[in-house]
Structures are given as structure tokens and as C-alpha cells.
Amino acid sequence: MMRFMASDRKYDREPGNGEAPTPSVRGLQVLIAEDEPVLARNLARLLERIGHTVETTDSGEAALAHVQAQRPDLILLDNRLPGLSGLETLQRLRAHDPSLLVIMMTAFATLDDAVTAMRLGAADFVRKPIGLAELELAVERVVQNDRLRQELRYYRGQLDGRGHGGLIGESEAMQQLRHTVERLRGVQRAKGGGPTILIVGETGTGKGLLARTLHQTGSRKGGPFIEVNCTAIPEALLESELFGHERGAFTDAHAAKPGLIEAAEGGTLFLDEIGHVSGAVQAKLLKVIEERTVRRLGSVRDRATDVWVLAATNRDLEGAVRKGEFREDLYHRLRVLEISVPPLRGRGDDVLELAEHFARVHASQYGVPVPRLGVAARAALQAYRWPGNIRELANIMERAVLLNDGGAIEPSDLAMLPPAPAATEFQVTFPPSGIVWADLEKSLIEQALAQAGGNQVRAAKLLGLSRDALRYRMEKHGIATGARRDEEQE
Fold first, then answer.
1. How far apart are CA 314 and CA 274, in angstroms?
2. CATH homologous superfamily for 437-488?
3. Are 252 and 297 in contact, with CB atoms under 8 Å apart?
4. Which tens digit of pLDDT belongs to each residue from 241-261?
5. How far apart are alpha carbons 68 and 59 in whole angstroms?
6. At a CB cut-off of 8 Å and minimum separation 6, what does 97 contact?
7. Cβ atoms of residues 29 and 46 within 8 Å
8. How many Cβ atoms are within 10 Å of 11's Cβ, its own excluded?
9. Does the reported pTM lie above 0.70?
């Protein structure tokens, strides 16, 4: 077996190929299975020049033995070898490790050989002799495609509730949420997917994960899932990013570009933080939902589009509609079905299940033992209010895993935010005849004003209202609204 180590020397010129380009894939452990010593040596030198470490074998049996002892990143396998043929070797290699990347090489390529090799799991099929540029291109193409597949597997894994933790839990709220997802599994239209859904909930509760789960469990799971964070894209660019543009639509539009809505064709478009888009974008989104068409900036014609629209927000859209900050017609079109994601503080023992889940995830990520939750830590997790919800819990457990010395996780390892001052709890004994809400509200306002010495700003703070809201209620109940000078200065 010959071994070639990567060096720092610059590229040599290869006759007929010019200067070798700078590769974007470097540092691979490559095994060459080739029985012609001169060719094997030349291939090794070519790969060594572009930053890889290479070993060679001259038979299929030797290649199998090498792989069992040390897994390479990539194998160049000759189709015609003494003893085991290249195709037989490929079959055994893939049986040993289905994730192996194998490029088949042959000087006598036929269509049948190529089809058979690809069916058996070869990543590519090339003809000899192979120049530096062609070899580099084949290696880069195979490795980059494999990385894309790994990335796809990762994101598909996140669509599973186990991958992120958002749908983990046996609380009644989570059982109802999973039941809703299951009900929607078969509710799909021929065009446009299922009903438009508005997902509401506090920041960090897992609204994005729920949207991905709806996509993955529906009939459109084979199509694209395009997520758009409406607050992460500058408002001036959001319209172009969503709807695309034609060449010359604006100064820098040197070429036509499809938008993210077109990119979601046949799949799902998830509009996160929909409550913060401008009025102009709201009007165009309404057209997309109602007419199922999209028009690029600078275009004079509409394009039919087939996307399932999901949206999410932590904003009070109903209140935004009343203030004129969000279109009422779009609000009603978005909430054909509204799903509320519960906050973590209302999910009972789910917090412990999630904490243990994140402990396992982060321990695996950092290659450390999985710590257990101590009794005091479990109590602290259950007592905490979780203002940041699941996102906060994931970050806290990551820190706890990193700093754990092998013992149980204790409250001091969790570094949770100090609890907010507890609100006063009111106990009211209702008379048999009930109460008149207007009288109770008027009485509370008068008591707050009395305690604040008539200062409306201070009274509003005591009641948890804005001064404008307090003044509105004072006028409503006929309470004098004359402003004092000292409050005007606050």
C-alpha cells in the first residue's frame, strides 16, 4: 500500500489543462483502488496537489480490508480489478457502510456498466484517463452533493418533534396540539394545500417548529418548505424577496429573479412574524392568498402559484386591526384556522421532559456524558416562569451540560433569570346577585387616583394602564380628568 500526504506546494501545470483552479473541497482522506501502478501514482499526485491525503490499493479485497480498518472520506474504484471486480467490490463496500462515497473509474465505459454502478450506490462514474480539472470537478461534485443530502436529512430530522423539542410533552395542551396536527393531515386541497393557518403564541414557544411539522405531515411534504422571517429582512427588500422582480425593475435589478413565493411552488410558504409587514406587502399577500397569483416587481402579468400559506405572530393582530396597523381582510384570510402554541409555564411536567431531552441533545453534541437533573434542579425548573419559553430552556440546558462536572445538575448550574416580583392576588367574594363590572372598574380607578394623590400617570401605573387608556376610562365613568401640573412633567 502506498501513502501520499498533502503538501503545501503550489499547483503544477498539467499539459493541456492550464493552471489548476483553487479547489473548494480540501483535506479529504481518499482511497484509490487501481491495479495499474503508474495510473494510481498519477491520480494520487493529482489529488495530493489539491490538498487531500491519499492511499492506494491494487485490489478489491485490499480496499475492503482498508475500509474496515479506517474509513476514508472518498474512494476511487477501478471497474476492472484482479480478483473481485469493481462492481463486486462496490456492492460489498456499500453493504459494509451505505454512506461511503465511491467514484467508479473505467477505461471501457458502457451504459450498462454506468447504470449498474449507480444502482449499486456509486456516487459518480468517470472515464480514464482523467485530467486534473475533471478529477477535481468529480470529487467536488460528489462531496458537495453528499453535504447537501446530510443537510437535508438534518432539517427533515428537525421536522420530527423529537428533533427540536417543541412537540415533546404529555400535557393536555400538547396532546390537543398534536391532535390538531393529526386532524389536518388529510385536510388538503388539490391546489394551495390545506387551509391558511395563523399560528399564534409567545416568542420561543415553537411556532416555527409547528409550521414545519404541519408541512412534513401533510400531502406537501415532498415539496419545498420556505420560511420567511418578516422581521429579519429589511422592509425595503422584503417585497422584492417575496415577490421577485424583473430585469430593470429597479437600479440594481440586472437580471430577473423569482421570489420566495415562487420558490415555494408545490410546497409550503411560512411567513413568520407576519404582524410586522408593511401595508403594501399586506395588500400583495392578500392577492396571493385570494387569487393564488403572484406578480413580480416590474412585471405586467400575474403568474399562477400553488403554495400552502402558513403564518405566525406573537403580536395581537386583532388589536393591530383596531388601530389600523394591519389589514382586516388579510387578518381574516390568514386565520381561516388559528392554532395557539401554549407557553412553557402552562405545560406542567413537560418542562422536565424537555430539559432531559435538551440535556441528551447537548451532551451528544459536545461528546460529554449526559448529566441527570437533581431533585432541587427539577423543582427549580418547575417553579420558574419561563419568559423565553422553550428557546430559553434549550439555552439554559446547553450551559448546564457544558459546565457540569459529571454530577447531578443543581439549581446553581441553571442560571435562570431572577423571578419577577409576584403580582398581588385578589380574592373576591361574589354576592349571590353578582357584581356590576362598570361599578367595580370605576371604584378601582377612583382608589388608584386617591392613592396617587390625583396624579394620573402614577394612577395608570398602579392599574397597569397607559395614561391615555386611564383617561379614556375616566371619561367613560364620568370621573374628573383635569390633569395636574406635576403629572404633566413626568
1. 9
2. Homeodomain-like (1.10.10.60)
3. no
4. 899 888 887 777 777 788 899
5. 15
6. 67, 71
7. no
8. 14
9. no
Query: Could you name the CATH architecture of 161-340?
Result: 3-Layer(aba) Sandwich (3.40)
Q: Which has the closest alpha carbon to 130: 73, 60, 58, 76?
A: 76
Q: Length of the chain, please? A: 490
Query: pLDDT tens for residues 93-124?
Result: 888 888 889 998 887 766 777 788 888 888 88
Q: Which fold has domain 2-154?
A: Rossmann fold (3.40.50)
Closest C-alpha among 336, 207, 327, 337 to residue 272: 207
Question: Which residues fall within 8 angstroms of residue 406, CB to CB, at 6 or more apart?
Answer: 369, 371
Alpha helices in 348-455 (DSSP H): 350-366, 375-383, 389-403, 411-414, 437-451
74-78 and 124-127 beta bridge pairing = unpaired
Angle (nearest 5°) at CA 323 between 319 and 324? 115
Residues in CB range of 233: below 8 A, 6 or more apart: 241
Strands 2-4 and 337-340: what pairing? Answer: unpaired
Asked if 268 and 223 count as a contact pair (C-beta separation under 8 A), the reply is yes
CA distance 236 to 373: 48
**DSSP string of 267-330, one letter each residue:** SEEEEETGGG--HHHHHHHHHHHHH-EE--BT-SS-EE---EEEEEESS-HHHHHHTTSS-HHH
- CATH code linked to domain 344-414: 1.10.8.60
